[in-house]
Records
---
Amino acid sequence: MPYCDRTLQHLLRTFIEITLLRQGPQDVPSRSVVLVVAIGLLLFAFLSTAVAMPETVSGNIAISFFVSVLSYVVYWLVLLATGFGRRLVPTIASIMACGSILTILHVVVFVVMRQFTSDVVTDTVAWLILIWAIPVKGNIIARSIEQHWFAGIAIAMTIFVMQNITYIILVNL
């Protein structure tokens, strides 16, 4: 069991390093268990958001989950279109896990800071954490398709805008 614990700790540490732009998806093993861990982090992030911030979640958690899955499909299509489909597991797992880590951090900051600072400061810090996901995901996709970091940022920003537009449309149906 200690081997499993060390492996999980190493994987989580790697995802945190990717979130800090110190590593990339090439540092994540291409195994299905990595994807299972990333999905677990995603579910935990959605659950923590729904529990800790129910009044701030405008719309529906199911729609948020659907829009997230849609974004993973678009990242997968980018991998296929650029000839790097074989990098699906480490890329999607990294995007999913790093986005989940940032969402969990967003929830913690939102809940904790709200008690010590004004709503404006808390909202700004929480928003900046979520915006950090764009360069993180841009770094991941750029390294995965062997392109310049700016190309990754453009892809991540495009997908971010697509997610927001899709979410707004679905919530207002």
---
Amino acid sequence: MMTCRQFRANLQPGTADAALLEHLRHCDACLDYAMGIDPDLFFRSIGGEELVPPGGVDAFVGDVMSQVRVRSAETSLAPRHASSVWRRLAIAATIVAGVTGTSLVYRLERSAPAPQHVAQTLLSVQRAKPHPTALATKSFVETYSSHNATIVEMPNDGSDAKVVMIFDDTLPADL
């Protein structure tokens, strides 16, 4: 075992002497002294004999390189753009739908009359119609008298309209 006096006498910056580094691992006072001379000695004093992988450095490098080859083979065999085609089709369909919808909205807005014009048209139609129009498509009978006809009057619900049914075989079919 080396003494602190021998260590300080033999210490040189950048030393790789195994005996000096072994003393640094066990003596804190000499470690502080060595840090003033060469700060790299702190990392060299950590040691390295237990850091050698089992089987040696060459076996470790061989294992790492075999893992690199396996990973590169995995990535080369993996499908690259399997979902890419479907994703591209979905994006294209979305764009087509957006452009179509936008053009339809644009056409409808351009062909639709302005809201003020619609309001003016409605007012002019309401002013021009002084009396209500008849909603009946068939002619109606105001008076009717026949000895062969059966006339049935429906009960009135309070309104002005009267419902009368006439059953007569001598009447024309369109009446």
